[in-house]
């Protein structure tokens, strides 16, 4: 009785972190298939375990896993990060299977549970890194395809420019969405067919190749079609349907290769994967009685039953964690990741906000640029062009953003090599980020900083100490810290976020004296803009 109650309470403890996870990941296009993956894992676990005998005694290792899960649940909520949610869920599922079906059950369930890793959020901004790299790769391969067909164009980073149009290889076209979803679907297909590990690995590797090739062909096709009168393929519903067709084609080619190799391997006594005497498809698993008995012998059973006191203690701890996590999730729910980027209510920036002369820099031009939401740069930018000696400084005030915007991805996207340096002193509003840029025969620097609607400095995500977030969330869960009001992101920053940046390019390396002048210009520009009506409320 206590064991069943413990598992029920432990399952309830997973719900708040899964609720948090679902809300975060639904905003990530390349993870939006996660509900289907959860359903597939449930179906596969049921099909593999439903006919197996239950282990009534349980194991001490299952108790240890539940204790580890309890710690992970608490830390996931206290730091409020989605990164550890899936590993936490995997530990819980392993504990349940081990307790109910022993080591043999865990052995056959583990490959199914492991596919949850495909919806594990990458930590410390690695999602953006993967997206950026895939954008570059898709753009480069698409450029080679266009070259092979004699289509005149040139590539600058992730932008393809033809005689008629300019095309940005956005996140959706990079292959990130089809990559994760294809890997997940291929894994589910292989597990449903009881493929061996070697066959699964082969199919996953070949699917990566087809994802890269398929999305490069997709980008090149969009450029060609849009350049020849079919602009509807470059945006809107038809563009999305073209992406779906690409995904289906990638999966179809992967299965075709799998079947072709299977046909050629059937006639051999030993398949290409080292399996003997099987009339099944190469690599298909045939569970033998011998392996089953070996697993039964390997199962570790406790010599004495677990004391009820252990279960009671774990139930009590899980109840405390449920109360804590439910209170914190309720406190944050209305404001968690609320991203309203409407800037119509904010005061516009006037050209006169910056003077004609700042130190030795002289204003030569002012411009307001309004771009689309899917542009590589900001939807709205105010630009002042200043000149000093042989240097030109582009002062830009950009908005709106839902959080701190790392400009290194933008500048890499147009072909720069960019080294990022953060300088954010503790308890100071004078923080800023520096980009050191380089291209063949060209150099540049960018200083930038982000500010919330109320004029407070926005720090990069990695500048938030986990200990600081831990203490802050504990205070919020216990009611000692007020819940942020209005439109805020998960860090409690008032939306929308605006960013101030200065770009200086030069054919020669920028000297230390020039760097000091640029830094002084940035500090003056920042103070002037922060004193504008935009941040007066």
Give the end-to-end Cα distance, rounded to a whole number of Å: 59 Å
The number of helical elements comes to: 14
Runs with pLDDT <50, length 5+? 269-290, 295-304
Rounded average pLDDT: 81
Task: Name the helicity range.
Answer: 40-55%
What best-fitting shape do the alpha-carbon axes yield? flat
Major sheet summary line: 9 strands, antiparallel
Structural class, from secondary structure content? alpha+beta
From the alpha carbons, calculate the radius of gyration and give it in angstroms. 28 Å
Q: What's the quaternary structure here?
A: single chain
The H/E string reads HHHHHEEEHHHHHHEEEEHEEEEHEH
Strand content: 5-15%
Number of domains: 3
Instruction: Say how many strands there are.
Output: 12
Essential attributes:
14 helices; 12 strands; flat; three-stranded antiparallel β-sheet; 537 residues; alpha+beta
